[in-house]
Design brief:
Length: 528
């Protein structure tokens, strides 16, 4: 079964139904007693932007509803109501079958599946499971009856990754993924989004599509009532981050509402656009040209939370003492930032004024070594990947290579070059690749935005060399013409270093995202 990424489910039914009605009876019975309310909730979710609706049948099973006739009526009504709402918005309907905790679980799952198959169901979600064996026969019955059915199996585990049967999430995933009758495997309920993200990241890349449907967070209690905080914005950011980490199928469990799903749909659309462009990582500079800008670590954390894409802040040694640097790194670790690029920092542009000299308590060498040391102690559970800079435009490239080798010996594992414009810079990059075997080497590409931008870079930014013929070709050109020239020239540079580069570090010129997008499209063409 193919899932369009990201494939978004609706959110919780039971907790949302209770918040609207105060009815403490099982919400599945409302399929018969309050069908209009059930239909309205489905419609709210369908309008929120989700692609799939779950039937209101989570606890519709022989354990919760022993009367077989009544059970059949509840399932049939739940199926009909979800179908009505989905037809109005084009969503797909999944038969929702919740976890059954009983000695008769295997037979009970078969009973519920038979009811749905009689109704014509083709999409099935088994959720909040504690093990896989109990549903295996039911999954087999689905595949036997409807060969092209979609079957998603989702487990509920605590924050430490264990289900109520004492099985670890990795074992649960392995069991379900090994069954060719299962289309996707995931986690739902029990965990908030942050803990679920940590668990899924620890599992690594999986062989089948991954589903992630966390709770809104963790409930609070007030006057004997349990409720979830209104945190739709935060939930959406975390769901977007789960998608960027590799989750294919997303949705919400306990405490989520149509507003959570609406915010998630918007956040996922933004994250999907970044992924569609091929962006893997966003870097954030630290006071370039020694001008005051928003703190790189704080900005990077905001991008990671709100756009759901991984980041790499630059950390400058200039004007920060040991205490400030350590504090910043601790904060970055709290935010889940795992990569940093260490630079000395541009010298102050103002001269001849009191206090204008930069303060350098550490060199880039010192800071790389210090972070590398902290990786084995303070950050042992999640060590930083450390990057350094490589100036391919250096007049004395032998000395620059020696500097690079020292950074690697002190703990850096990746190097990012200054912008490559000239033939000399290309030659230096290729030489660096030959001599620096034990690191990842990223080619820096800075497409110019136009003629004035090119002149500024040549005359105002240290270490930038742009060939005269390129500068002249930009003079008098419209923005669109300049963009086309810039993309073509930069693409030519990328083509020359493509085989030697572990990746490309593209610097956005004057917020001209269209130029960057054009270059990324060129890179993807090389990969085909």
């Amino acid at each position: 079964m193919h899932f369009d990424r990201p494939f978004l489910f609706d959110g919780a039914f039971g907790t949302y139904y209770f918040s609207k009605t105060g009815d403490e009876a099982p919400c599945e019975l409302a399929n018969l007693t309050a069908p209009q309310t059930v239909l309205d909730i489905h419609r709210e979710y369908a309008a929120s932007g989700c692609a799939a609706l779950k039937t209101n049948t989570f606890a519709a099973n022989p354990v919760s509803i022993p009367d077989s006739v009544r059970l059949n009526e509840v399932i049939a009504a739940g199926w009909s109501l979800a179908q009505r709402a989905a037809q109005e918005n084009g969503a797909r309907v999944f038969a929702d079958i919740g976890g059954i905790c009983a000695d008769t679980a295997e037979a009970d799952y078969l009973t519920v599946v038979r009811h749905f198959l009689e109704l014509g169901a083709q999409n099935f979600l088994f959720e909040t499971l504690a093990c896989y064996q109990d549903v295996q026969r039911a999954v087999g019955l689905i595949r036997q009856s409807v060969p092209d059915a979609t079957v998603i199996v989702s487990f509920a585990v605590s924050q430490d990754g264990y289900s109520r049967r004492g099985l670890y999430c990795r074992a649960l995933f392995d069991q379900a993924e090994s069954d060719p009758q299962v289309d996707a495997v995931g986690l739902n309920c029990s965990c908030g989004p942050s803990h679920m993200r940590s668990l899924l990241r620890a599992l690594g890349q999986r062989v089948k599509p991954v589903a992630a449907m966390p709770n809104a967070g963790y409930p609070s209690s007030l006057n004997g009532r349990v409720f979830f905080e209104d945190n739709a914005g935060y939930f959406a950011q975390q769901l977007s981050a789960l998608y960027m980490d590799g989750a294919d199928i997303l949705g919400g469990c306990c405490g989520t509402t149509p507003q959570h799903i609406r915010c998630a749909a918007a956040a996922l659309a933004a994250a999907s656009e970044l992924r569609a462009c091929g962006v893997d990582l966003i870097t954030v500079t630290d006071s370039p040209l020694s001008r005051t800008r928003a703190d790189s670590l704080m900005t990077a954390a905001k991008i990671r939370r709100e756009a759901g894409i991984e980041v790499m802040p630059h950390i400058s040694c200039r004007d920060k003492n040991h205490i400030a640097l350590r504090a910043g790194l601790l904060g970055a670790a709290f935010e889940g930032i795992g990569r940093v690029l260490i630079v000395t920092g541009d010298p102050p542009m103002q001269a001849g004024t009191r206090g204008s000299d930069g303060v350098y308590h550490l060199s880039s060498y010192d800071l790389i070594a210090w972070i590398h040391s902290m990786n084995s102690e303070v950050f042992a559970d999640a060590p930083f990947l450390i990057g350094g800079a490589l100036n391919v435009n250096a007049a004395n490239f032998d000395a620059e290579l020696a500097r690079a080798k020292k950074k690697l010996s002190l703990g850096a594992s990746m190097l990012f070059t200054q912008p490559i414009f000239s033939d000399k810079a290309v030659d230096h990059f290729l030489r660096a690749r030959q001599e620096l075997k034990d690191c990842r080497l990223f080619a820096g590409i800075l497409p110019v935005a136009g003629y004035k931008n090119a002149l500024f870079l040549i005359n105002e930014v240290s270490g930038i060399e742009i060939p005269d013929n390129v500068v002249r070709s930009l003079e008098g050109k419209t923005p669109d013409e300049a963009a086309a020239i810039s993309v073509a020239y930069s693409a030519g540079i990328m083509r020359r270093v493509y085989d030697a580069a572990d990746g490309f570090y593209i610097m956005t010129p004057l917020k001209k995202v269209n130029i960057v997008r054009g270059l990324i499209e060129e890179i993807r063409r090389y990969e085909q």
